[in-house]
Amino acid sequence: MTILISDREAPNLWRKLVQVPWLVVILISALAGVGLAMQYSAASGSWDPWASRQAVRFGMGVGFMLVVALIDIRFWFRWAYLCYAAALIMLVAVEVGVGGRIGMGAQRWLDFGFIQLQPSELMKFTLVLVLARHWHGRTMDDMGRIVWLMIPALLVAMPTGLVMRQPDLGMAIMLVGGAIGIAWIAGVRWWKFALAAGAIAAAVPTVWEYYLRDYQRQRVLTFLDPTRDPLGAGYHIIQSKIALGSGGIGGKGFLQGTQHALNFLPEKHTDFIFTMLAEEFGLIGGIGLLGLYLTLFAYGFLIVNIAMVMGLIPAKGAALPMVSYGGSSMLVTMFGAGLLMSAWIHRDSRFGPRGEV
User: Fold this and answer.
1) What is the 3-state secondary structure (H, E, C) of the chain?
2) How much is the pTM?
3) How much is the pLDDT for 82?
4) Which of 34, 142, 256, 308 is the most buried (most CB within 10 A)?
5) What are the residue boundaries of the structural domains of the chain, listed by start?
């Protein structure tokens, strides 16, 4: 199929390419480079099975990110509800077992043949989009009406409930946390947050007793005191701390880590990849990686302020963006970065006054 670009459209496309915030691309590439090096190390100095696949995904992801960035941000704003609905349908498909795949004891992926997608990862961004669309369409007077608070509460509750059933407590926390951040920026009064926090606190005993699974309770208890079960639930976090401490200031050196080489660290190419990095490169390497994230966050926050878009998501229980191995995480991170760059490229776009959609 040949895509024809008219002479009139070409200059506009060129102007957009010139305005691409290439610093974001460079920072993301640097993070991906760190991830590839760690996945190479996790496989004991081999590109297979993780680093080679992740490199291909990143190359494709850069192209996808730039396409998203060049699309007017108002397009995503206009179709926010449809994007949300698509992600929600995929979550339902996981729940009913349509094309689902089970991994690590939980069913969280949809198998499309050419890609295995985790819908909850996609929901992180579509939820941000749909909540931004909702709050933009409300006036400040609407903020005091319960009905306009019930709608976003329902938008959050539906995917959160489905994610909890997978089960994925960490992702559920991120969805709720992101929604709270957006509501705060939108202007919801502080006392309503306090009221909601009181209701959540009151519900904790019931949720603990009847809704959390045994392993989820163990995770919470282990987080509070890993030594209560050093050879069971607390084993992984204790080994992680040992690896972190053994790295010292400068680390043991690339490919010289012992904790992951001897398989004391589980999921070393995903959940515990930062631990592996800190063991090999020490405190200096860990601070360097956090510095890259901080720079990307600071630059992204500047763009967000300019474009009046918000995406505040806590990092509890998630893969390390661009560093941990994973196709779904890579795809949605690139999508999010593309949206961020689109907000900058199209910063002169007008969305209309608040209260209008």
Assistant:
1) CCCCCCCCHHHHHHHHHHHCCHHHHHHHHHHHHHHHHHHHHHCCCCCCCCHHHHHHHHHHHHHHHHHHHHCCHHHHHHCHHHHHHHHHHHHHHHHHCCCEEEECCEEEEEECCCCEECHHHHHHHHHHHHHHHHHHCCCCCHHHCHHHHHHHHHHHHHHHHHHHCCCCHHHHHHHHHHHHHHHHHHCCCHHHHHHHHHHHHHHHHHHHHHCCCHHHHHHHHHHHCHHHCCCCCCHHHHHHHHHHHHHCCCCCCCCCCCCCCCCCCCCCCCCCHHHHHHHHHHHHHHHHHHHHHHHHHHHHHHHHHHHCCCCCCCCCCCCCCCCCCCHHHHHHHHHHHHHHHHHHHCCCCCCCCCCCC
2) 0.73
3) 95
4) 34
5) 22-345
